[in-house]
Amino acid sequence: MTQSCAWVVAPGLGGPRRGAPRPAWPLAGGIVAGAVLDALLGDPRRGHPVAVFGNAAQALQDRMYRDSVPRGALYAAICVLAAMAPGVLAQHFTRRHPLLRLAATAAAAWTVTGAASLASEAQGIRHALQAGELELARAALPSLCGRDPQGLDEQELVRAVIESVAENTSDAVVAPLLWGAAGGLPGLLGYRAVNTLDAMVGYRSARYARFGRASARLDDVMNWVPARVTGLLAGALARVAGGRPAASWQAMRAYGPRHPSPNAGRCEAAFAGALGVTLGGTNTYEGLAEERQSLGDGRAPEPADIGRAVRLCRATTAVAAIGTAAAVLMTRRGMRATGTVTARWGEQSWSPGPTPTRGRA
After folding, report:
1. Are 316 and 325 within 8 A, CB to CB?
2. Mean pLDDT over residues 143-172, rounded?
3. How many Cα neighbours within 13 Å face the side chain of 17?
4. DSSP state letters, 279-309
5. 190 closest CA partner among 214, 228, 229, 222
6. Can you tell me the distance from the alpha carbon of 235 to that of 44, in angstroms, rounded to the nearest whole number?
7. Contact 188, 330 (CB under 8 A)
8. Nearest to 297 by CA among 274, 273, 281
9. pLDDT of residue 47
10. Is the overall model pTM greater than 0.70, yes or no?
11. Nearest alpha carbon to residue 341 among 95, 17, 21, 12
12. N or C end: fewer C-beta atoms under 10 angstroms in the chain?
């Protein structure tokens, strides 16, 4: 049965007509503004919402932990839904206030992206290495990745930093922006919750092999597209780091599938090709060694290559933010042209025609 609906607000009362798409500029502008805030301000030094979430998730884990896949899945669901709830509420209460929606989106995007902190930590380790301070570099490495830093020489520390910058360009920049474009405020917060849980429990250790499986798999699913977008962008921008796009894309295609992660290998291989280096090797996590195949066919990485990787990360961040915002504007314009309205969490859904549908990005 075809629905006919005309939900028009009287002049002067405000609010959208039913069937009219919400304006796209608050979401698009909020994404760009959040990326700019991160570049200018970095992460909050105290009371970071992600840290607050992590502490709450740890407290819940202390109560819920069992060496069980179903228990781990329930834990992940509770944490992610709890993280998304403020986004759903903010999305609902700002639906008729575009400036408030823009401000909320900017704040959320600033909170969940981490390009500035990633670059700062990487550059700090580079400076320590170039000054010959191996112990200082080892002490700083846990701020970037979870591998054991003890006994790593200069080359292994450089490799660890570049691999972390490559992977986190996707995890901490491109992925949250894409999920924000797809799901608005709940998408931004929900993605960051999933990625944080993966960092907390998504290990193959004796404690988390079963309990953390759901978190790890969910993170794999949510990062599948962003990781490949990151690899493509890194290749396109390879000249920023003194590389060649063709070499980066070739490395991504040839070496990316060799990585045990379905996603990280694409980013790391793309960066390896762009930088002209070889990544991969033996990584040790909580005393357990993992052998990784080589990624790339270049020389061994050097401390100066960290700075090149950071430049590539920053360029990728800028293009991802602008490109994501442009995609939001173009997508909503297309909806307006076809008369189709697609809901985000916390908003009303209506589509003209006999069978209204609700989609999920």
Report:
1. no
2. 94
3. 10
4. B--EEEETTEEEE---B-SSB---HHHHHHH
5. 222
6. 31
7. no
8. 273
9. 81
10. yes
11. 21
12. N
